[in-house]
Amino acid sequence: MIERPPLRPWLAKMTNMHDRLQQAGDNENADKVKHADALLFVTYYNHAFSKADREFLLQLGRVKDAFSLDKMFFIINAADLAQSKEELEAVISYMNGELARFGIRFPRLYALSSRLALAEKTGAEPGPRGVLADSGLSAFETDFFRFLTEELAEVAVESAYAELERARRAAEEFARAAGQSEAEKAEKRQALEAVKTKMHAVLAGIDDAYGRQALRQEVDELLYYVKQRVFFRLNDVFKEAFNPAVLRDDQGPARRALERCLDELLASVGFDLAQELRATSLRVESFLHKQLAEQFSRLFHELRRFDDALALTPPEPFAFSAPEFANALGDVDRVRFTKALSLYKNAKSFFERDEKRRMKEEIEAALVEPIDAYLAEQKERLVATYEEQYKAAVAALLAALAEQVDSYMEGLLAALAEAADHEALARIEAALRGLLSGRVGEAR
Q1: Per residue in 272-315, pLDDT tens?
Q2: 223-274 pLDDT, tens per residue?
Q3: Crossing angle for the helix pair 27-35 and 51-63, nearest 10 degrees?
Q4: Homologous superfamily in CATH for domain 15-135
Q5: Where along the chain do its domains lie?
Q6: Cα separation of 290 and 299, whole Å?
Q7: Could you tell me if 77 and 44 are in contact, meaning their C-beta atoms sit under 8 angstroms apart?
Q8: What's the predicted TM-score (pTM) here?
Q9: Cβ–Cβ under 8 Å, residues 419 and 185
């Protein structure tokens, strides 16, 4: 049987942000995680896995599903220290298991040696290779550059081609209009003004009360699960705070030690709550982006009832701004935990009998009210913050669509003018179609 590696080999490090994300939980850092194009974590093969590392990975596990792309890469450096292939495979398997425990499943995980990679790049003698045939850097580079040039770029490429298709359809309609008879053009010009007025009336009549109600329901549901997760992790938090190294009969008055343990537990739970709220804000933003996409789709189909040649493209995603979350429970009244702490008699009975379980249950019961109060307060903050921003996002969407409608109508009116060049417009449409057909060929 392969033994688990004796040391937990992780030291989370954000290499592409100059290590500014090492302290998990900071509001600024959470914002950087949201906006980063890629996240690279590098660990040394046999470094210990600290509490800060666990908190940081836990936060990434919370927000992973809110990203449209899997942009996280995990690297185990100094893999040449492995004494055997079995040991290296055990470390990799262990790390996969640890990441899954934090909600990061199927990670992009690479074991490599920077020492051997440097030798490969410079042509120097590599020295001992251990169990590695090469540095392992090539596999990471291949996947990472594929992510940059294909997955990440695909988002921008698809947007560009959508804009090309909109331009092509507009050029096609302009060419068709320019080729009409003068009588047809005159009739079309008169009809266009009425259509334009109707389109603007549709956009002006939008009041997305349903979207705002859906936002409140989404926040309700998200915070329900926040509470469930925080209390689910309370057992581990309690074990870390009330541990045998701190609660010893030879360490002086037990009361002071218990108060320090309680302070540590409350700080950990408060930190956990704040982290959960930061992750919740990303989930809310993801939800609102979907709402806006659905709103665009509904409006697009509504406007095309008046002109089925109308082509629209979604505007740039609205940049939501998350509220800041201070750690919770910092000012909670310690008196409510008096009964729980009074259950402690001495270290032996606490750890060997049922006292520890009973104290944990009492603390858990005492935490329900302050946690409920904190979440109720944060719910109102989240709803108020994002409701205002969602209104602004809908207004921005409507303004962008109105601008596209005006641009389309102005182009049609220009095509219906006497000087409009039907042949030139047809050539433009053909050129755009050629560009788009090249895209279809690539996909095949």
Answers
A1: 999 999 999 999 999 999 999 999 999 999 999 998 888 888 88
A2: 999 999 999 999 999 999 999 888 887 767 888 999 999 999 999 999 999 9
A3: 50
A4: P-loop containing nucleotide triphosphate hydrolases (3.40.50.300)
A5: 15-135, 181-415
A6: 14
A7: yes
A8: 0.73
A9: no
